[in-house]
Design goal:
The chain has seven helices and no strands. It has 154 residues and is mainly alpha-helical. Helix 1 packs antiparallel against helix 2 and helix 5 runs parallel beside helix 7. The longest helix has 18 residues. The mean pLDDT is 73.
Length: 154
C-alpha cells in the first residue's frame, strides 16, 4: 500500500488570513475597511507571489479604488419584485359545522356501500377507537373531514 504525504509551508499564510478576517470584520466601517483590505492584499501577495517559483499561483490581487460604500439605487430597489403576501391558514368552513353521530354513520355507511370499508376502518383506528360510536364529539369534525377526503358527501 502506497502512502502519499504532502506538506505545504507558507509562513505568511496565517498572517494573510488574519488580515483578511480583520478586513471582513471592519466591513461596516468603509474607511477602515479599505485600509484593512489593502493591508490584507499586501500580506497575501507576500504569501502567494504572483510569479511563484513553482507556478502554483498566478494572478493579482486588487484593492478597492474608492473608500465609499456602494450606493443602492432607489429605482433598483423599487423595481425589485416584492414577495407575495403570506395568507393566514384558515380552516375550511366544514370544520366549523357541528356533526352528529347519525350524520357520520350515514356518510360512512354510504362509503362502505361503495367498497371503502378498509379506508373507513383505517380512519376510525386513527382516532384510537374501533367503531364510529366510540368517537368523542370533539373528533366528529375531523372525522367528517377525513371521510370527505375519500368521497363522503357530508
Amino acid at each position: 500500500m502506497a502512502q502519499l504525504s504532502v506538506t505545504i509551508e507558507t509562513p505568511e499564510l496565517a498572517k494573510a488570513i488574519n488580515h483578511l478576517a480583520d478586513a471582513i470584520s471592519l466591513a461596516s466601517k468603509p474607511q477602515d475597511y479599505a485600509e484593512s483590505l489593502a493591508d490584507a492584499a499586501t500580506h497575501a501577495e507576500k504569501a502567494f507571489p504572483a510569479s511563484s517559483a513553482d507556478g502554483v499561483f498566478t494572478g493579482t490581487l486588487a484593492t478597492p479604488a474608492s473608500t465609499s460604500a456602494p450606493a443602492i439605487s432607489t429605482e433598483a430597489a423599487a423595481a425589485a419584485p416584492m414577495p407575495a403576501p403570506v395568507e393566514q391558514a384558515t380552516l375550511p368552513a366544514q370544520m366549523d359545522k357541528v356533526y352528529t353521530l347519525d350524520e357520520l354513520s350515514t356518510a360512512s355507511a354510504d362509503l362502505i356501500d361503495k367498497g371503502k370499508m378498509q379506508q373507513i376502518m383505517s380512519i376510525i383506528q386513527k382516532y384510537g377507537v374501533k367503531a364510529i360510536n366510540q368517537l368523542r364529539p370533539d373528533q366528529f369534525a375531523a372525522y367528517a373531514a377525513d371521510i370527505r377526503g375519500i368521497g363522503a358527501k357530508i
